[in-house]
Amino acid sequence: MTKVVLTYGTFDLFHVGHLRLLKRLRGLGDRLIVGVSTDEFNRSKGKQTIIGFPERIEILQNVGCVDLAIPESSWDQKVEDIHTHGVSIFGMGDDWTGKFDHLSEDCEVVYLPRTEGVSSTDLKRMLKILDRSHVADLKKALDLIGSIVERFD
Ligand code: C2G
Fold first, then answer.
1. Closest-CA residue to 110 (of 35, 9, 7, 34)
2. Percentage helix, strand, coil, to 5, in the chain?
3. Pocket around ligand 1: residues whose beta carbon is below 6 Å from it?
4. N or C: which end of the chain has fewer CB within 10 A?
């Protein structure tokens, strides 16, 4: 019997943390289905993404270990998705530990260790530092510090 694994996520600025989790989840079964959060659903999660839903789901559909990418538009679709796709295992990174234990009535629930040192949030912060207007502000601040230092020389 084909063992189907299911997970969900935003997958903004797709990175190696996402990839390693998906590969480990795929290794638990024969087929991996990934729910990708829509832009509207992300707004309800209070998440502002850099990359829009159409591009994010296109990336996930083309990740080697992903067999099917579906839209995630609400917190409540998981049980229906589990039954629709004959899911045996639901898995998430361990930042979600305990949050989906109720799904254990419908399938096995696993939480796998996150990949430390990389996150979409960190990448966004780094991108902001490279932002032109931010660099201009930093230059003004350095000029100000320079003029203050000169006064004390
Ligand atoms: N992840 C990881 N290592 C990282 C970053 C993320 O293993 N360094 C995992 C998360 O634990 C999650 C998955 O990658 O299982 C997707 O992470 P996000 O895109 O941040 O997903 P999130 O916004 O947490 O949405 O209904 C569930 C939600 O849609 C999950």
1. 7
2. 50, 20, 30
3. 8-11, 17-18, 21, 37, 47, 72, 92-93, 95-96, 114-115, 118-119
4. C
Output the CA 63–ligand 1 centroid distance in Å. Answer: 16
Radius of gyration of the chain (CA): 21
Q: Per-residue DSSP letters for 9-43?
A: E--TT--HHHHHHHHHHHTTSSEEEEEEE-HHHHH
CB count within 10 Å of CB 106 equals: 16
Active site residue 45: yes
Give me the pLDDT at residue 72, please: 98
Question: How does pLDDT run across 20-42, given as a tens digit for each residue?
Answer: 999 999 999 999 999 999 999 99
Structural domains of the chain ordered from first start: 4-152 (3.40.50.620)
The CB-side HSE value for 139 (13 A sphere, CA atoms) comes to: 7
- Secondary structure, 3-state, 1-18: CCCEEEEEECCCCCCHHH
